Amino acid sequence: MSAQSDLTRYSAAELADKLAAREVTSVEVTQAHLDRIAAVEPAVHAYLHVSAAEALATAADVDARRAAGEELHPLAGVPIAVKDVVVTQGLPTTAGSKILEGWVPPYDATLVERIKAAGLPILGKTNMDEFAMGSSTEHSAYGNTHNPWDLDRIPGGSGGGSAAAVAAYEAPLAIGTDTGGSIRQPGAVTGTVGVKPTYGSVSRYGLIALASSLDQAGPVTRTVLDSALLHELIGGHDPRDSTSIPEPLPGLVAAARQGATGDLTGVRVGVVRELQGEGYQPGVLARFEESLELLRGAGAEIVEVSCPHFEYALGAYYLILPSEASSNLAKFDGMRFGLRVEPTEGPVTAERVMSATRGAGFGDEVKRRIILGTYALSAGYYDAYYGSAQKVRTLIQRDFANAFEQADVLVSPTAPTTAFKLGEKLDDPLAMYLNDVATIPANLAGVPGMSLPNGLSDDGLPVGFQVLAPAKADDRLYRVGAALEALLEKNWGGPLLAKAPELEVGE
Amino acid sequence: MSSLSRDEVARVAGLARIDLTPEELDRLAGELDVIVESVARVSEVATPDVPATSHPLPMTNVFRPDVPEQPLTQEQALSGAPASEDGKFLVPQILGEE
């Protein structure tokens, strides 16, 4: 099958139109993606589990209901991949950890319930850094995911599997989760679109919690419009999540369609002074400046804003996240689910079983962060570490509040560099943490953020452009993002992913 | 602020209930010392007049409607357990000998 007629090359919105017009069936679309998965997975390894039979059964059911004239969700029949940190009834869920190997959850996350109710076939579960701790997917207990642009490079993390699956045409849509950049940074390094919604916009019920005050699930796609469609499907109030916002979502798809006209007259775009310069690759900064020119040409007013406390965000994040994670991961005690390991010598007590289980079941990064968090919360250190970090959180919120008085959206490069080589930063945790320097402030303040591809750096690898908006104003991301996407694609003559090398397809 | 010694890492790993090998302890102590030194900068701006923030969008008294829902069945609840017996989780002895 030629690339042009290949059903895996269409966006989710295009597939939805073809399904509604009955040009194709969901079984055909789903099978095309399963064939693509079979062909490229040996090279990419984006999936931890492929649920072919379940996906085809959903597709056949949707096709039958459509044939019977039933009113269906616009995305019904469009297949999707789900990050393995989201629980799925009947499908294995490991969060990338050996401690949950083989676990099959007895319930669905709210967002999975909504996906199933809308009739999207679930293709499988995507690879990730263990418990979402990492920026390269190298901390998965089940092997690396490879960047489809260059198989020797990282796909970002923690959601490298979802981003790579979408970039390699192994799924038109995927679910990610973003605690400090785990949707946006993989989007940037794989040339795809990813959105971290406002905290509370998408239910956290059924996400295996990393840091409860930072975690947020969101869409991973190839176009801004597809992200809006998926965000509207999974978002909105959920009584089972006490931090879920009890209000309707703003019109996200409408905002994306408005933005796609390319007109941003009257929109004030704030460039964050602290999120550029030292540490940012020249090619990343060059693409950023070009994107600003495009926005200016579309009628936007570009202003510079200062967020002086952002330089403390990384430090605050690496105190708050490990602290919350050390508490959330205490449930992995070898008693009710997951791995149980008995000590090799001495009495077999619950406490000693718990220590042996966690020693054997957790990987290096998880141990590192749990111990760091336990330390930060321990007597004598709490005020200096965790307490100070919470105060920095206030200062960062104030920085955002001031900046949003001068601008409707804020922008920056998503990540300081393009994809680095697998293994390059594995022995230097601090260098790995610096990948998220531009994405972390949004999580600390709860504001929404988007990354969309805005060109190739000098090394030929994709660069991401980040848009940030005030809490509950996620629609602004879609308007500005869709406008920039339309202007860029006009210049490129098509999507950025068309420039990615074709993967060797096995038979 | 004090640096994180190997003994201190061992003590905290005990609190966190994670068995570490001697090699892991050596490596973690070095890595964590660097990380703690870096993140400790937050205390520079965390002055007493700044209030703490725990959640980005604070909400209070959140309740869902008081409507009974179907809980997991006993079989579902036990489905992932490493060991079970008579419809209950089977766990090691809780207390030591003394």
Distance between the termini of chain B: 39 Å
What is the strand content of chain A? Answer: 5-15%
The radius of gyration over CA of chain B amounts to 22 Å
CATH architecture of the domain at 7-265 and 412-423 and 445-499 in chain A: Alpha-Beta Complex
- Specify Rg of chain A, calculated over alpha carbons: 22 Å
Describe the protein.
The complex is a heterodimer of chains A (about 500) and B (about 100). With about 500 residues, chain A is of the alpha/beta class. Chain A is about 40% helix and about 10% strand. Chain A has 16 helices and 11 strands. In chain A, helix 9 links the parallel strand 7 and strand 8. The longest helix of chain A is centred in the last third of the chain and has 24 residues, at about 385-405. Chain B is mainly alpha-helical and about 100 residues long. Chain B has a domain at about 5-40: Histone, subunit A (Orthogonal Bundle), CATH 1.10.20. Chain B is built from 3 helices and 2 strands; from the N terminus they run αααββ. Chain B has helices at about 5-15, 20-40, 75-80; strands at about 85, 90. Chain B has a two-stranded antiparallel sheet. The longest helix of chain B has 18 residues, at about 20-40. The two termini of chain B are about 40 Å apart. Chains A and B meet through helix 10, helix 11, helix 12 and helix 13 of A and helix 1 and helix 2 of B.
Features:
heterodimer; A: 507 residues; alpha/beta; Amidase signature (AS) enzymes; 11-stranded mixed beta sheet; 16 helices; B: 98 residues; mainly alpha; Histone, subunit A; two-stranded antiparallel ribbon; 3 helices; 2 strands; flat; nucleotide-binding (chain A); ATP binding (chain A); protein biosynthesis (chain A)
